Amino acid sequence: MRRHKSTTSSNMKKYIKSPEHKENNKYTENNPKENEICNLNDDDFKTAIIKILNELRENSDRQLNEFRSYVTKEFDTIKKNQTEILEMKNTIEEIKKNLHALNSRADNMEERISNLEDDNIEMLQAEEEREVRLKRNEETHRELSDTIRRCNIRIIGIPEGEEKEKEAESLFKEIMAENFPNLVREMDLQVTEANRSPNFINARRPTSWHIVVKLAKVNDKEKILRTARQKKLTYKGTPTRLSADFSAETLQARRE
């Protein structure tokens, strides 16, 4: 029995001295007290071995607990990261939905802007057409007005009220006789209408209104005006002028 115990102790000593034990328990090499175990007797050796085993078990338990704590923390971190990732995914999905809604609104706005631009183009075209029609109507009105006035002569510079003493037609014939006696004898002068236009006195107007005389023949009007351009006209010694009767639009165009 003593021999068996001695053999067992010897084998344990050999194991402690083996390279495998030293590799797995490097900390024993750094502890001088544990290196002295091999020199102990059997009882002390057993006691030392039991102490070492207890320390190893305690160390293993401590490391296992630390590992479990580490794993638990890592697992909690993973769960937290998974929760954050899920929240990020939800946020990304919400952003995608918002972007989709914004894109839809942008498309709708672009369509509305395009429609407004089309409507604006149509309005501009309609306005241009209206302006063209208006100008055409104004031109037609001007031409019609000038056609109606084509036989008219305007007498300029006769004081207002003069035609009340004499009719406007008689006043015109006196001007013709005073300034163009030869022309009056040559032509059969026919007046269809004569009056001051407008037919009222304006005290605030610095100059008198013109007298408009309508002749029967346009050729007579043109002959009189050609002759009038060659001399200064008077009525009872007061300077006066004869002019063609144009519409306001034609007068404006001639001034421009």
UniProtKB/TrEMBL annotation:
* Organism the protein comes from: Equus caballus (Horse)
Q: Where is this region: Disordered?
A: 1-35
MF terms from GO for this chain are: single-stranded RNA binding
Question: Known Pfam families for this protein?
Answer: Transposase_22
GO terms classed as biological process: retrotransposition
GO CC, alphabetical: ribonucleoprotein complex
Here the segments flagged for biased composition (Basic and acidic residues) are: 17-35
The entry's protein name is L1 transposable element RRM domain-containing protein
Boundaries of every L1 transposable element RRM domain copy: 150-245
Residue ranges annotated as coiled coil are: 78-126
Give UniProt keywords alphabetically: Coiled coil
- What family does the database annotate? Belongs to the transposase 22 family.
Matches recorded under InterPro entries:
L1_RRM_dom, Transposase_22
